[in-house]
Automatic annotation (TrEMBL):
It comes from the Bacteria. SUPFAM superfamilies: NAD(P)-binding Rossmann-fold domains. Its EC number is 1.-.-.-. It holds the Pfam family adh_short. The lineage of its organism: Bacteria, Bacillati, Bacillota, Bacilli, Bacillales. The keyword Oxidoreductase applies. It comes from Bacillus seohaeanensis. This is SDR family NAD(P)-dependent oxidoreductase. One of its GO terms (molecular function) is oxidoreductase activity. Keywords: Oxidoreductase.
Length: 225
């Protein structure tokens, strides 16, 4: 059975991607900070006949990243890594805080880079392995009241595009997916988006990504339906 590792796999887009990948025959390893969400997703996948394992992971902790990466790679042959977890703080640049900036870069940039590097030896053993980076359209263009979030996504995009060139013709293959805002709990504590219900659902975006990632190196999905 193929093995997929997904960060932020307990809810939202990560959960939907995990469910779809399990239906494609992957044993899905769910990584995230909220253990109950991970457990619920794993139970849902198993109830539908799939295989899932969950691991508590905080991308802010390099030590934890190393520990979880070793646990998975020592026991399983990894064919797919999905760097999905992310965090965003929005508002005017002048009112942003240093803590917000550090958390966004640690979660959106440093965390996935470190996890990818730790899992790379396992990924390189398989001819059809891939790293799927879930980036956001904030990695394509600047947006009002999103300057630091956009900066983190531009950095993530630049890293992914560079590795597409560095690993061209050799495993793993790097895919960058840019999607607009989604109707998720991500917006529950923010008034940055007036009506999230007008946005695409995580399940809709997940289906588009899963249908394209095996043949495309770049996937762009705008917010509006």
């Amino acid at each position: 059975m193929n093995t997929a590792v997904i960060t932020g796999g307990g809810s939202g887009l990560g959960k939907e991607l995990a469910v779809l990948l399990s239906k494609k025959g992957y044993h899905v390893h769910l990584l995230g900070r909220t253990e109950q969400n991970l457990k619920n997703t794993a139970l849902e996948i198993k109830s539908n006949g799939g295989e899932a394992t969950f691991h508590s992971l905080d991308l802010l902790s390099y030590e934890t990243i190393q520990k979880v990466a070793k646990e998975v790679s020592d026991r399983f042959k990894i064919e797919l890594l999905v760097n999905n977890a992310g965090v965003g703080y929005f508002g005017s640049f002048t009112e942003s805080t240093d803590q917000e900036m550090e958390e966004m870069f640690s979660t959106n940039v440093f965390g996935p880079i470190r996890l990818t590097k730790e899992l790379l030896p396992s990924l390189r053993k398989h001819k059809k392995s891939a790293v799927l980076n879930i980036i956001s359209t904030a990695g394509l263009r600047g947006k009002k009241h999103e300057s630091l979030y956009v900066a983190s996504k531009f950095a993530f995009r630049g890293w992914g595009e560079s590795l597409q060139k560095e690993f061209e013709g050799t495993p793993p293959r790097f895919i960058n997916a840019f999607m607009g805002g989604m109707n998720t709990p991500f917006w529950d504590k923010s008034d940055h988006v007036g009506n999230p219900e007008k946005l695409r659902s995580p399940s809709e975006i997940a289906e588009i990504i899963i249908n394209q990632y095996e043949t495309e190196n770049e996937i762009v999905i705008e917010s509006k339906k």
